[in-house]
Write a structure and sequence with these properties.
Layout (H helix, E strand, L loop, with lengths): L3 E8 L2 E8 L3 H21 L5 H26 L3 H17 L6
Antiparallel strand pairs: 1-2
């Protein structure tokens, strides 16, 4: 495990000091930049005031996006029994094909 260090990130121009493993600092900075962008978008809409409310709305939106991605990923996976049925059909088809003799 990598040694912990503290880095500073900015969210809506407010500094936050966060401890993380040294090998994850780039990911944390990228995550903070993404959250900052989303917070600025929410603030730019002008309907929500206050840093805490903006943060909650962004957290809910990001959670919704994550759950939708997870659901899409689960739906795209082929169930094991479907794979077995496809393999059996392919084997039957291959067995029915007569290869020319060399």
């Amino acid at each position: 495990m990598s040694e912990l260090s503290t880095i500073e990130v900015q969210l809506l121009d407010k500094p936050y000091r966060i401890s993380c493993p040294q090998d994850e600092q780039d990911v944390l900075r990228a995550s903070a930049a993404y959250v900052d962008k989303k917070m600025r978008e929410v603030r730019g809409q002008g309907r929500i005031l206050g840093l805490e409310r903006i943060a909650v709305i962004v957290a809910l939106n990001l959670s919704r996006e994550l759950l939708a991605l997870q659901q899409n990923q689960r739906q795209s996976l082929i169930p094991e029994d479907s794979l077995e049925r496809m393999m059996a059909r392919m084997e039957q088809a291959l067995a029915a094909v007569q290869l020319p003799h060399a």
